[in-house]
């Protein structure tokens, strides 16, 4: 998980909301540790001024899944990066496609550009 630029670690729900509201673009998203379910993560996405949170977790068989809207079929992925790629497409059972991961640049500012090493 640490290899993903959109992963922000153990930030709070409020911190995630602040980052995404500052980003201000529908489809801005980040991944953070779940505060209520150990070993799970949350994908937080901005859509129409609201922050929606979806739990991402690894199943017993080692595959990753995300909670989606009722009636949508569960999808399984070998890697979280594959899950993120699949949900960049609209109408996948979440509020908005995952398009713009705000990341921290080398000055400590949030941007939609990937980190430069």
Automatic annotation (TrEMBL):
Keywords: Adaptive immunity, Immunity, Innate immunity, Membrane, SH2 domain, Transmembrane, Transmembrane helix. The chain crosses the membrane at residues 38-57. GO terms for biological process: adaptive immune response; innate immune response; regulation of immune response; regulation of signal transduction. Residues 6-103 form the SH2 domain. This is SH2 domain containing 1A duplicate a. It comes from Cyprinus carpio carpio.
